[in-house]
Write a structure and sequence with these properties.
iron, 2 iron, 2 sulfur cluster binding, 11 helices, Rieske Iron-sulfur Protein, globular, binds FE2/S2 (inorganic) cluster, nine-stranded mixed sheet, binds flavin-adenine dinucleotide, eight-stranded mixed sheet
């Protein structure tokens, strides 16, 4: 299933790294965060290279909905309550500066990426009270925010918060334009990083500054990101024949929808769940039901899904990777708002590498740990990660898999051991280990994507066991049937 973006953009191709080289800075990952960081570092005069495991934009960036907005759900009121009013100001300032930086880059490099200025709305069908508070706090934090009851939505609402001066665009057209002139190595997965040295399958890079922009950091210690984040997955459909709003919308109630236009298509998103917790499936079906109810004439053109890292206290991790690694940096935990998040990260990381002050950086640093905001989840993220399974893969006897219908997958238990089984439409069986190679949690079957997903930190594998999403770095063990 390809997204609207991959179907409508041709990205430049780059050679793989072959041999050893040096650079002032090396960025791991060529998604939105990695490419923007490299662009801003290059502009600041830093000699920078980018190492990408697959193709540029091939991670979550190709499957985003690409709203460029400071409106990240109901964040400002929470920030002011849990942290301080000043924290809300710094959060707002980082996102608003990021929107401005998108305008600058698009104008300066003349990037044709369907960029359109618009407003963003949070809406509720249940209550106006929390939205009134959110509008007030966001306005106090410096955003052009106001409560309203006027929207273009095809259903009644109790209220909405409107942010002016936001935007939408085509993320891959933008990424391709921004990458032009950068030194990028594709098909170059980073295997290990030690001190200043990055090791890949076919060469090394030695760099003074190393930036992990690889979505979920694949190094467990130091940093302990596996204790700080899980991943959440959401689903999107692109529909034709629906009415097209100018604004971008995001519902805050359970089952709320994310809505924006892209040319003559309506993008409808929703159905979020923790990665690895979608045993029942039916997310695309649910989205289609929503679409049919509000836009009965619409037809599906594209469908896709993606996932993002959810930090403990709602603030991304941007800055020094850990206390023990002064020359390593990270940009992660964008909680599905990684368009402004990536740009804000790129600006902060450029400043960190070049020794400039950045007034917003402290709020995003790993050192910000606040017990009141994080303690409970810190314990539960850790606790989620301690299930025990044997890694050895066995092939369950054919009798145990006979009842599994074609086109379905699931876990088969036999004599106290477990294996993941998927049966293709023609009856071919694929058997994989359900022990996640990252830290050993039990994988769960996702029937909407036909993938094995890890509930602990969100690694994903296709039904043949091939790695799709990190932090795991290896494929699953498989058994021949
Ligand atoms: C359904 C959905 C809708 C969203 N919509 C929006 C939106 O409207 N607005 C918004 O602001 N945000 C949105 N987001 C969030 C946004 O899409 C992400 O936060 C953003 O794309 C993350 O970019 P990234 O560069 O961090 O990660 P990625 O795009 O995943 O890039 C990471 C790159 O690192 C590479 N990599 C990984 N490991 C290695 C390794 N060992 N060596 C080399 N390379 C490696 C990967 O191949 C990948 O290309 C959405 C998220 C979801 C799930
Ligand atoms: S992703 Fe960490 S154990 Fe699976």
């Amino acid at each position: 299933m390809q997204s609207l973006w991959t179907a409508t953009a041709a990205l430049p191709e780059y050679e793989a790294l072959n041999g050893d080289r040096r650079a002032e800075a090396a960025v791991i990952g060529a998604g939105m965060a990695g490419i923007l960081t490299a662009r801003l570092l290059k502009e600041a005069g830093v000699d920078v290279v980018v190492l990408e495991a697959d193709r540029i934009g091939s991670g979550q960036t190709k499957n985003t909905t690409a709203k460029i907005t400071s409106q990240h759900g109901m964040i400002y009121h929470k920030l002011a309550e849990v942290f301080s009013a000043e924290a809300a100001v710094h959060y707002a300032s980082a996102q608003e500066k990021a929107i401005g930086e998108y305008r600058r880059i698009i104008a300066e490099y003349e990037i044709d990426c369907d960029f359109a200025e618009c407003s963003a709305y949070l809406y509720s069908r249940k209550e106006a009270g929390p939205l009134l508070k959110e509008a007030e706090t966001a306005k106090a934090a410096g955003i052009d925010a106001a409560f309203t009851e006027e929207t273009e939505l095809p259903f009644p609402i109790k209220g909405a918060v409107r942010f002016g001066g936001q935007a939408r665009f085509h993320p891959l057209k933008f990424l391709g334009g921004t990458a032009e002139g950068l030194t990028i190595y594709e098909h170059t997965p980073v295997l290990t990083v030690e001190g200043n040295r990055i090791k890949t399958g076919r060469g090394t890079v030695t760099a003074e500054h190393i930036i992990f922009a690889c979505h979920y950091p694949f190094i467990n210690v130091p940093g302990y990101y596996f204790m700080r984040m899980h991943q959440e997955r959401s689903y999107v459909k692109a529909l034709e024949g629906a009415s097209l709003p100018e604004g971008m919308y995001y519902g805050i109630d359970e089952g709320g929808l994310s809505i924006r236009r892209a040319g003559n298509l309506l993008l409808l998103g929703g159905g979020s769940h923790r990665t690895g917790e979608n045993r029942e499936g039916g997310r695309y079906r649910w989205l289609l039901e929503q679409a049919r109810e509000y836009w009965p004439q619409c037809r599906e053109r594209f469908r896709w899904s993606a996932q993002d890292c959810m930090p403990l206290d709602n603030i991304p991790y941007i800055g020094q990777f850990s206390g023990d690694t002064p020359n390593w940096y990270v940009a992660t935990g964008f909680k599905k708002w990684g368009m402004t998040g990536s740009m804000a990260a790129a600006m902060m990381l450029r400043d960190a590498v070049t020794g400039r002050e950045n007034p917003d950086a402290e709020l995003f640093s790993l050192q910000r740990f606040t017990p009141s905001a994080s303690a409970v989840s810190f314990v539960s993220e850790g606790a989620h990660a301690v299930k025990n399974l044997t890694r050895r893969i066995f092939a369950p006897p054919r009798a145990e898999t006979e009842e599994l219908p074609c086109g379905h997958g699931g876990i088969v238990e036999y004599e106290g051991e477990k294996a993941g089984v998927y049966k293709e439409e023609d009856g071919t069986l694929h058997v994989v280990s359900v022990k996640c190679p990252h830290m050993g949690c039990q994988l769960e079957w996702n029937p909407d994507e036909k993938t094995w997903d890890c509930p602990c930190h969100g690694s994903r594998f296709d039904y043949r066991g091939k790695l799709l999403n990190n932090p795991a770095q290896e494929d699953l063990e498989t058994a021949e049937q």
